[in-house]
């Protein structure tokens, strides 16, 4: 069987139809953020880009993304010049909406192309599985919710990431994989979280000889070094000339933000906060000291910074150390056995570590784990077992991003549709593993997935009927604690699979 | 850990292979489908589901997917959005929820007729009442008397959209699912093909555009008609009568199909032998259904009279005479207890059948409107036009219904329904452009029938649907709904491999090349005309002395195309019914039926 149906292009066409129909849907402030960046890059000289602050949504992505906005603004000029005025805050004529939403759909073609590369790079029996995984990424509810409703350009970014991951599959294109990733870093710096895996893999597989760790391939080192330098030079060079690098870095890395985002991303710190909340109730009985100033924040749950009433506070330094530590462990194995499967596993685990332990993690960052994981989730049933709770938890945790009633059916029905379709399809496609499965892990994952149904029903319907507008933090807290259990569980499961395969 | 839990996938795998083998043995056409590549994108999407996937896994996914498209389309504007003073269909439906929940029953058909007075049959009124009651629980201001007129509260919009979706999922969708299953089994079509046809039917752009975007509840009526058809398929003629009465009671447009239902039911009582008891029970059940349908109105009127509530509180002094059947009033005692009921029912009929209006309301792609371009019909007396319309309609609907009467076979139902509805649409009095949904529905159901997904059927069903959407474009364009029109129509054309996305339906190996080229030529010229019309309409203003030029051109092309669809349905009905002797057909026709 040479062709597998449906093809990626067919899925892309139908998905595009749905995405166009979603044009009038809710859009978050990110829409205004990107409109503002179009305006900044179009109407200001290069040197003013990172200093402009008429809007509170200042440019805080690396220069390649700014260049990307500049290119789009050349087309935007023809559509509606008014959207390119920096002072035109909150401007959203229908032309602007059509234009910006269209650019998301059009730039997502990069993702389609990269996924086709991925399918083409798989051979034999795994090709069907690769096609299913590729379609699952293309139709991912995460991308639909974040890009096409909430508004961002993740589709294009993940397209570059997947292209780079696929290029790493063949030795002849390893260099391009590294360079493409460098370019991606200059577009969106969140991918720095995955950089350690790239560093170790390129070092071992490209810069050092495959036969011995002590033999350095100098020519390769020079090619890679020069290429990366050229890319970073193109991105940051113009700004470095004017000494604007510190300003850019203060925009890119705003360390003044809190540990948890407004809404807790489902990570370790969400569980930590949840335990803290529970301890507040138990504190009088256990005789624990309660920090009074934290209580104000505790009862709200919607405010920006959360501080802890009972448990010790967490500093960025601790987060950073934990993240690095949990990234380093899988990298040791990658260094010892630099295969492509191990590389993807290591990228996934780097994503996991940074998502679970990072400082001020946004729930959208869960795609950083789901998307690389999807590429290897169908290797065998053990991988799939670890992937399943992540797929459920990761997508359910995105629900609070959309809170308007008109989008409620879209996000829930689409996500449930995706989960049923792909978990069913994956179940048929994943081959049996030669190794024993872990004790009871599958049962836990089934139980976990089942719990999601009453949870969604409670958070979206029952809570509103029972409590109205009060205790608004409860559904959010349940959602993120539930999702955190799933993400942590799947992480533990995947670590075991990674080290035992 | 020594004994790992038994792997659940292994037996499943075996079962899968077993099922695979039996299904391919059972159905030769399924084997054929196994080896070939999908002929059009929709088949490609369901390709992995061939043979092995149970329909209980497939059906929920299909229903979710089509639901997503419906809801997403509903995010766009509706008819009359922020278009005072009268707003549009959305306001009409909302207003009916307002009057049915706020006023006594006897005033429903009399209340302020200038502002979207209720002019649908009672089931719509009851449906509006139910929706209005539920909506008032959420926010009573949505349906407050008078003050809620023209409301465009965004939450109200979500509620109204939800009522359309829920009504459709309770009526139309179950009916179509059951129909597709029964009809495909009747025709010996594989389950997988039936699933493909089901998606195609449910993604039909015209119904989504009119109900979920422009706003109406046509699918409830269409669903009741489909339920009636599928009852006939199951041999339950009495239920067919009940469902059909319900359809008529929801929207009088269902009359388009009435002749076919009548012809089939009567035919089934006469052929192969006369079955008088059957005829009597069908007639009795129909009468009882009608009685139950109007019973709430009758009881409501009587109780209002007893409580001293006037049905027309706006009128002081003597009551005006009944709008219709004035002769009847002379024989009735206006003081009798039953008089208010008679008056109420006459008023209802008067509201539902507006005989006093013109031959056609707006520009609609039927025969009269097209003829009006050539001959100005306004100069003829109304009576002559009415009679002309009646004769032309009868002339067009008698042939298909005679066929159905003499050959009351279940496979013929969609074709007979479609040709009758096309006849009505083309020639009858007071047609609205949205009425094209009525002939489109049974014609689209053909996809679930024998050879429903082959190229000839797909080409014609697709042609009718795309032309139908195109004739509704002016209606949609008026309320800025061009985008959902483009997306949904092109998506459907793409899924079924139709022009403008693909020409593959016109080229078939081993078919009659002469017929193929003729079809391609005819359809191709229509598709080109439609595309050219869109370009013109987009880029050029019509000349000032003919402001309606584009709409008139649309109507002319549409009417011609629909006439072809009528002829195709009728021709196919005649050939499939084998009512004419074989020798009448040339070799060409024989080749076509094979």
UniProtKB/TrEMBL annotation, chain A:
Pfam families: Alg6_Alg8. The keyword Transmembrane applies. One of its GO terms (biological process) is protein N-linked glycosylation. Keywords: Endoplasmic reticulum, Glycosyltransferase, Membrane, Transferase, Transmembrane, Transmembrane helix. The keyword Glycosyltransferase applies. Its EC number is 2.4.1.-. The chain crosses the membrane at residues 6-26, 98-116, 128-146, 190-209, 221-241, 261-283, 318-336, 383-402, 408-426, 447-467, 473-499. GO terms for cellular component: endoplasmic reticulum membrane. Belongs to the ALG6/ALG8 glucosyltransferase family. This is Alpha-1,3-glucosyltransferase. It comes from Parachaetomium inaequale. The lineage of its organism: Eukaryota, Fungi, Dikarya, Ascomycota, Pezizomycotina.
From TrEMBL, chain B:
Its EC number is 2.4.1.-. It comes from the Eukaryota. InterPro entries: Glyco_trans_ALG6/ALG8. GO terms for cellular component: endoplasmic reticulum membrane. This is Alpha-1,3-glucosyltransferase. Its main location: endoplasmic reticulum. It comes from Parachaetomium inaequale. Pathway: Protein modification; protein glycosylation. The keyword Cytoplasm does not apply. Residues 1-21 are annotated as: Disordered. The keyword Endoplasmic reticulum applies. It is a multi-pass membrane protein. GO terms for molecular function: dolichyl pyrophosphate Man9GlcNAc2 alpha-1,3-glucosyltransferase activity. It is an enzyme of class 2 (transferase). It is found in: Endoplasmic reticulum membrane. The chain crosses the membrane at residues 58-78, 158-180, 192-210, 222-247, 254-274, 280-302, 412-429, 485-508, 514-536, 548-574. Belongs to the ALG6/ALG8 glucosyltransferase family. Keywords: Endoplasmic reticulum, Glycosyltransferase, Membrane, Transferase, Transmembrane, Transmembrane helix.
């Amino acid at each position: 069987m040479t062709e597998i149906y449906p093809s990626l292009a067919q899925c892309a066409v139908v998905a595009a139809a749905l995405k166009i129909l979603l044009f009038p849907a809710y859009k978050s402030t990110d829409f205004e953020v990107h409109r503002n960046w179009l305006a900044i890059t179009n109407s200001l000289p290069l040197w003013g880009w990172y200093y402009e602050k008429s809007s509170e949504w200042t440019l805080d992505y690396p220069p390649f993304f700014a260049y990307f906005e500049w290119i789009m603004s050349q087309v935007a000029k023809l559509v509606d010049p008014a959207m390119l005025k920096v002072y035109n805050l909150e401007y959203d004529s229908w032309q602007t909406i059509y234009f910006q939403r269209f650019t998301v759909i059009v730039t997502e073609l990069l993702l389609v192309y990269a996924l086709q590369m991925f399918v083409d790079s798989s051979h034999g029996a795994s090709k069907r599985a690769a096609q299913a995984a590729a379609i699952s990424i293309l139709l991912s509810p995460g991308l639909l919710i974040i890009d096409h409703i909430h508004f961002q350009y993740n589709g294009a970014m993940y397209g570059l990431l997947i292209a780079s991951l696929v290029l790493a599959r063949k030795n002849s294109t390893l260099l391009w994989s590294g360079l493409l990733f460098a370019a991606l870093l200059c577009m969106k710096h969140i991918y720095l979280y995955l950089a350690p895996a790239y560093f170790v893999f390129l070092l071992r597989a490209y810069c050092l000889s495959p036969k011995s760790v002590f033999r350095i391939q100098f020519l390769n080192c020079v090619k890679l070094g020069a290429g990366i330098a050229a890319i970073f030079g193109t991105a940051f060079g113009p700004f470095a000339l004017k000494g604007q690098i510190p300003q850019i870095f203060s925009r890119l890395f705003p360390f003044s933000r809190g540990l948890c985002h407004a809404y807790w991303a489902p990570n370790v710190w969400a569980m930590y906060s949840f335990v803290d909340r529970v301890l507040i109730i138990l504190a009088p009985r256990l005789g624990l000291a309660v920090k009074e100033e934290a209580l104000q924040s505790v009862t709200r749950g919607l405010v920006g910074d959360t501080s802890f009433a009972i448990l010790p506070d967490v500093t960025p330094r601790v987060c950073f150390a934990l993240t690095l530590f949990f990234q380093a462990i899988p990298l040791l194995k990658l260094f010892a056995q630099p295969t492509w499967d191990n590389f993807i596993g290591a990228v996934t685990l780097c994503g996991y570590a940074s998502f679970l332990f990072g400082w001020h993690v946004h729930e959208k960052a869960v795609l950083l784990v789901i998307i690389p994981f999807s590429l290897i989730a169908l290797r065998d049933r053990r991988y799939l077992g670890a992937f399943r709770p992540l797929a459920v938890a990761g997508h359910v945790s995105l629900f609070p991003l959309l809170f308007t009633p008109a989008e409620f059916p879209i996000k829930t029905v689409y996500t449930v549709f995706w989960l049923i379709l792909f978990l069913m399809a994956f179940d048929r496609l994943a081959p049996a593993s030669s190794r024993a499965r872990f004790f009871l892990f599958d049962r836990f994952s089934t139980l976990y997935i089942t719990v999601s149904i009453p949870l969604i029903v409670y958070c979206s319907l029952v809570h509103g009927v029972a409590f109205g507008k009060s205790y608004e933090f409860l559904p959010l807290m349940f959602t993120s604690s539930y999702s955190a259990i799933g993400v942590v569980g799947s992480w533990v499961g995947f670590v075991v699979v990674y080290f035992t395969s | 850990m020594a004994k790992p839990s038994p792997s659940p996938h292994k037996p499943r795998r075996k079962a899968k292979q077993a099922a695979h083998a039996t299904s391919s043995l059972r159905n030769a056409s399924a084997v054929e489908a196994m080896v070939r590549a999908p002929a059009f994108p929709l088949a490609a999407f369901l390709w992995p589901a061939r043979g092995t996937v149970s329909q209980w896994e497939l059906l929920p996914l299909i229903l979710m997917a089509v639901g997503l498209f419906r809801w997403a389309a509903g995010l766009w504007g509706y008819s009359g959005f922020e278009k005072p003073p009268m707003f549009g269909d959305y306001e009409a439906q909302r207003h009916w929820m307002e009057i049915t929940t706020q006023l006594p029953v006897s005033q429903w058909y009399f209340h302020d007729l200038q502002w979207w007075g209720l002019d649908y049959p009672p089931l719509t009124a009851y449906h509006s009442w139910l929706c209005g009651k539920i909506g008032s629980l959420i926010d009573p201001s949505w349906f407050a008397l008078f003050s809620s007129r023209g409301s465009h509260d965004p939450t109200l919009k979500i509620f109204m959209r939800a009522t359309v979706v829920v009504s459709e999922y309770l009526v139309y969708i179950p009916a179509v699912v059951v129909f597709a299953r029964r009809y495909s089994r009747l025709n010996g079509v594989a389950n997988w093909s039936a699933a493909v046809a089901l998606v195609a039917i449910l993604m039909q752009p015209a119904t989504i555009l009119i109900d979920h975007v422009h706003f109406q509840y046509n699918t409830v009526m269409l669903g009741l008609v489909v339920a009636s058809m599928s009852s006939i398929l199951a041999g339950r003629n009495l239920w067919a009568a009940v469902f059909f009465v319900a359809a008529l009671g929801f929207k009088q447009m269902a009359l388009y199909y009435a002749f076919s239902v009548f012809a089939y039911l009567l035919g089934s009582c006469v052929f192969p032998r006369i079955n008088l008891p059957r005829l009597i029970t069908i007639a009795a059940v129909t009468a009882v259904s009608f009685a139950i349908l109007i019973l709430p109105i009758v009881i409501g009127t009587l109780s209002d009279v007893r409580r001293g509530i006037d049905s027309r509180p706006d009128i002081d002094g003597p009551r005006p005479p009944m709008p219709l059947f004035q002769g009847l009033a002379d024989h009735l005692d206006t003081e009798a207890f039953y008089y208010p009921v008679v008056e109420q029912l006459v008023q209802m009929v008067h509201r539902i059948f507006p005989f006093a209006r013109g031959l056609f309301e707006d520009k609609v792609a039927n025969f009269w409107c097209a003829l009006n371009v050539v001959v100005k019909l306004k100069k003829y007396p109304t009576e002559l036009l009415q009679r002309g319309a009646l004769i032309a309609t009868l002339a067009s609907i008698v042939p298909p219904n005679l066929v159905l009467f003499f050959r009351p076979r279940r496979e013929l139902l969609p074709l007979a329904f479609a040709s009758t509805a096309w006849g009505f649409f083309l020639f009858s009095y007071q047609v609205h452009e949205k009425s094209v949904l009525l002939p489109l529905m049974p014609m689209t159901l053909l996809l679930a029938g024998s050879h429903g997904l082959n190229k000839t059927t797909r080409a014609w069903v697709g042609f009718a649907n795309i032309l139908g959407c195109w004739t509704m474009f002016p209606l949609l364009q008026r309320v800025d709904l061009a985008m959902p029109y483009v997306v949904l129509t092109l998506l459907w054309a793409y899924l079924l491999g139709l022009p403008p996305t693909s020409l593959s339906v016109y080229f078939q190996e081993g078919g009659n090349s002469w017929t193929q080229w003729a079809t391609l030529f005819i359809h191709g010229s229509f598709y080109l005309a439609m595309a050219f019309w869109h370009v013109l309409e987009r880029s050029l203003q019509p000349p000032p002395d003919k402001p309606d030029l584009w709409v008139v051109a649309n109507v002319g092309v549409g009417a011609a195309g629909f006439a072809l669809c009528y002829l195709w349905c009728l021709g196919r009905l005649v050939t499939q019914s084998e009512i004419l002797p074989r020798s009448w057909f040339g070799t060409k026709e024989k080749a076509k039926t094979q």
